[in-house]
Amino acid sequence: MNTMLTLIIVVQVLSALTIIGLVLLQHGKGADMGAAFGSGASGSLFGATGSSNFLSKSTGFAAAIFFAATLALAFLGNRPASDMGVMDRLPATSVPVPAGEAPPAVPAVPVPATAPSTTAPASGTSGQSNQIPK
User: Fold this and answer.
1) What is the DSSP string of 49-105?
2) What's the distance, Cα to Cα, between the start and end of the chain in Å?
3) Is residue 97 part of a domain?
4) Is residue 121 within 8 Å of residue 133, measured between CB atoms?
5) Which of 63, 110, 113, 128 has the most CB atoms around its CB within 10 Å?
6) At residue 74, does pLDDT exceed 60?
């Protein structure tokens, strides 16, 4: 599965570079004066009747390959992974305990001290036993 993903990425990058190169090689429709008078068809590979030349057809073919590779990457990227993760592949190891010894104790978690009481002592004679001291 990983090899297929790598292969599709390589095909996509190569087709993208091909598209960039082919687009940069082509010239626009108004690039020269001869294009305005109909002489632009002389550069056509498939004859004067073809409306597009070899470079534009090659660009379309490379774009179709790029589009197919993008769809394949999107399809493979949305599938859930069926294999285990890195942590699942680790072997289960246990600490060997020599004969006659107890297994190592798990350290105890310290318990925080309890909060002090907010009520006043009952032995007070101030008459304000139900209030919080200031």
Assistant:
1) T-SS-HHHHHHHHHHHHHHHHHHHHHHHHSSPP-S--TGGGSPP------TTSPPPP
2) 71
3) no
4) no
5) 63
6) yes
Overall pTM surpassing 0.85 (yes/no):
no
CA distance 107 to 10: 52
**Can you give the residue range of the structural domain that contains 17?**
1-27+52-77
Q: Is 87 helix (H, G, I), strand (E, B) or coil?
A: helix
**What crossing angle do the helices spanning 2-25 and 54-77 adopt, rounded to 10°?**
150
Any domain includes 5: yes
Domains contained in the chain, number: 1
